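Q: Can I see a sequence and its folded structure?
A: Here is a first one.
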Amino acid sequence: MDKIPDNPKAACENYINELETLYYPWYDTAARWHYFMWCVLQAVATLSGFAAAILAALIKKEQFEDLDWGRISLIILPFVGSLASALLVQLRFRAFLGLRERGRQAFQNLIEQGMAKFAAASSPGTYAQIHTWLVEQAAAIEREQSRGFFEIAPAPTEKKEITP
């Protein structure tokens, strides 16, 4: 663990660095991951539907009689598309993408404001005020993210034991 700074300027500078190296990258990674998953599932759902439609148009009547690749594909492709669509709806990747992107933007803005205030400060008292302000703002962003997460995430269901 790093040594705790013994002056307000160093403490404030360390906290700005912490926001920049810990908080911001977490939100950036989370936003990119949710965007990637949303894109992949959206593409799979769409392409499997198109592929099934094109395949159904091209398959000959005789190929429906036996269990060959065409018939199996017409079963698997809609299944895969439906699964991808269900995952998009149930796991709410787009909603989480928006939530984490707002968190990323908020921390980026907070870091930039903190750097500007830090550069303009000249007294230990001002550095201490900036540090306190940064901590309060970061806590507010985290509370908003937590509230947003629990609005999006489904609530766990209670298991009730049935007694005979």
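Q: Show me another, different protein.
A: A second, unrelated one:
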Amino acid sequence: MRNVPNSQAGFSYVEVLVAMVLIAITLVPAIDALQVAMLGSGQHEQTAIHHYRAYGRLEELMTGAFTTLYDEALALGSATTPSSYSDAPGTQDRRLVFLSEYDADNADGDNDRFTTGMDPGIVWLRVEIENSPIGFESLKSF
């Protein structure tokens, strides 16, 4: 019998060191990418909460009685004044509700939907989160 030397018995020390260096070099960018993703997930969570709170209030108003919304819109007289359906001042993530009469057909031709030529029986609603880009608009009629 001949004695054959074992040419590949295991990894050499140099191969292990090279592998460790490669892992360390590629691990740093991967961890940085995960850190950015983790920071973004917190922002997304807050945006999702604002979205559902604002949309939930809009749905509540859309299912309510038209006459109460219309009476409030007439009393406000402006699309920029928050209505009594808004959350109390100082509330965290305050929902602002704006109501107004609406010129849906633009029969007067001035392209102004909120100050002239209002159509009776149509209310414009806007719900937004204060100091946030989240907001929803809709129209309701009787």
